[in-house]
Amino acid sequence: MPRGWPALLSNRLFAVLIVGILALGVIALAQPATPVSTTTAEPSEASSQAALRPRMIRGINLNVFSRGYLGFDRSHAQLDAMKAAGVTWVAVVPNWYMPTKESNQIRRHHDTPTDASLRTFIREAHERGIRVLLKPHVDVETGDWRGEITPANDAAWFNNYKRMITGYARLAQQEGVEALVIGVEFNTMQDRTLRWRQVISAVRRAYDGQITYAANWNGYDGVQFWDDLDWIGIDAYFPLAGGNRNPRVAGMTQRLRGHLDAVEDWRTQQGHPVSRKPVVITEVGYTSVDGGSQSPSHYPDSCAEPGVVVDMNEQRDAYTALFRAISERPWLAGVFLWWWDNPSTSDHYPHGDDWECFYTPRGKPAMRVIINAYRRP
């Protein structure tokens, strides 16, 4: 998950929730009000796109900052739009919180989805033939990134974490959820291998589906418990552009191929059983700002921030490069894009304040690229 997201959203949450009924248009192209880059790709670059393999996961993340939204009809209408776009899996993200990055406490918040609303959404997804990845996040109320937490007491933190995640494991078992993420981007905590193995064991006792860990793009090689998991999960916010402010699709594709080569080499070097486990991109996404492909996990505070220039074509080209690169890797089982927007955030098409420059692909040229990739047989 992009850094600092919960803190940015919290101040806008209730104002955005009032804004009205969710638009169902999947590919309508709106004209942004903020400055727009004139950078364009050659038509051949934008339109030439490799097809994903037939059995690849075609996933999307849905991160909702609302207690009840997942139980509402308009959230279920989003599932219809996802299915029309070719989505086969949805990663549902309930958020829990630590008061500070040093805290041992992990607790629900006023914006954590209720279990009842989560169950309703899972059932609605299954009715539509969409599989579910349950992906709980732990964020920090002060806005610090979860990858930099330093709890005062490891044992206390892991006990609290295990209580939270096994609760979701039981819910996942009861609702027939296909896969569960047991942790997300805990860079400073993932070296506690024994404690993570204990978490995994507790989850396995409660849940018999597929499980994974979502490692940050710069930390997957530091995880030592992949052998206990079913997938290797990577939040793949790899830089695509280096220092180039006007990257071309070919250059972005080549850089991503280099990152994937490194993943493949590392996986092979691990030996059995890790070298035979599928890799799933549990998150990847691109903002629609000029230079956004240089550091995909970062984004502006708002579209009104000085210096922010909307560049929807760069976002489109980054997705084109993504699908070209991942389609070539037989060991890569699928991808979950970040994200499908919703009214609990300011990144909500077409009513949110920041949809023009943030992650949502809806209402932008990137949506057509995603549909072309996801709906191809």
Q: Would you give an account of this structure?
A:
The chain is an alpha/beta fold and 377 residues long. The protein has one domain: Glycosidases (TIM Barrel, Alpha-Beta Barrel). Helix content is 33%, strand content 14%. It has ten helices and ten strands. Strands 1-2-4-6-7-8-9-10 form an eight-stranded parallel beta barrel. A two-stranded parallel ribbon has the order 3-5. β1 (57-63), α4 (73-84) and β2 (89-93) form a beta-alpha-beta unit. α6 runs parallel beside α7 (193-206), α8 packs parallel to α9 and α9 (312-326) runs parallel beside α10. The chain is globular, with a radius of gyration of 19 Å. Mean pLDDT is 90; it is low at 10-33 and 40-44.
Features:
TIM Barrel; single chain; 10 helices; 377 residues; two-stranded parallel ribbon; 33% helix; alpha/beta
Distance between the termini: 29 Å
According to CATH, the homologous superfamily is: Glycosidases
CATH topology: TIM Barrel
**Beta-strand residue fraction:** 5-15%
Tell me the count of domains: 1
Helical proportion, percent range: 25-40%
In round numbers, the mean pLDDT is: 90
Strand order of the biggest β-sheet: 1-2-4-6-7-8-9-10
What is the subunit organization of this protein? single chain
Number of strands: 10
CATH architecture: Alpha-Beta Barrel
Structural class: alpha/beta
Under the CATH scheme, which class? Alpha Beta
- Overall geometry: globular
- Helix and strand succession? HHHEHEEHEEHEHEEHEHEH
> For the CA atoms, what is the radius of gyration?
19 Å
Unreliable stretches (pLDDT < 50, length at least 5) are 10-33, 40-44
Largest sheet: 8 strands, parallel, barrel
Number of helices: 10
